[in-house]
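in:
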């Protein structure tokens, strides 16, 4: 049976949110909660939804949304797009925290911690983070140096440390040439 892309997104988001926000929820528990909301199904049906192998009726989608406590947009949007949105929001927080460095060092630390988690714990997180940081920096007219510094701080990766050093050397060389 063919499922539509939004149904696959619902399934992927159901699994992601169930595992992340409700690790104690088994497939049976989700099935019971949906049944209590008038959408009779068993654990196998929930598993097939999560795997994108079962069609989803509108009433079922509404019940899934309700038990997860999210809006329909979050439920039906691709997990990759949701991750990019989240990254961009975190990056905006980094910029705001940088502007308020003296006032909000804990906010900046927390934001960097979340970015580190995404980079290290999610599939494709490091690549998505790099793309997001680059796009965000470009849209805010920030330099490659700023992008590299954020990525180095978040990933603690020697590659990013070397990029920062390379950019700084190039800037020093350019200044020396100008003098």
């Amino acid at each position: 049976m063919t499922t539509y892309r939004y149904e696959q997104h619902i399934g992927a988001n159901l699994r992601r949110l169930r595992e992340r926000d409700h690790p104690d929820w088994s497939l049976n528990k989700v099935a019971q909660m949906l049944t209590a909301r008038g959408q009779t199904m068993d654990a196998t049906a929930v598993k097939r939804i999560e795997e994108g192998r079962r069609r989803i009726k509108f009433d079922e989608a509404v019940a899934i949304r309700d038990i997860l406590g999210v809006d329909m947009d979050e439920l039906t949007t691709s997990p990759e797009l949701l991750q990019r949105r989240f990254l961009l929001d975190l990056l905006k927080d980094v910029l705001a925290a940088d502007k308020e460095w003296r006032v909000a060092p804990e906010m900046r630390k927390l934001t960097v911690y979340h970015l580190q988690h995404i980079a290290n714990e999610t599939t494709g997180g490091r690549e998505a983070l790099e793309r997001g940081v680059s796009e965000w920096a470009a849209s805010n007219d920030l330099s490659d140096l700023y992008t590299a510094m954020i990525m180095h701080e978040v990933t603690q990766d020697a590659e990013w440390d070397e990029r920062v050093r390379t950019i700084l050397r190039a800037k020093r060389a350019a200044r020396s040439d100008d003098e």
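note: The longest helix spans residues 79-99.
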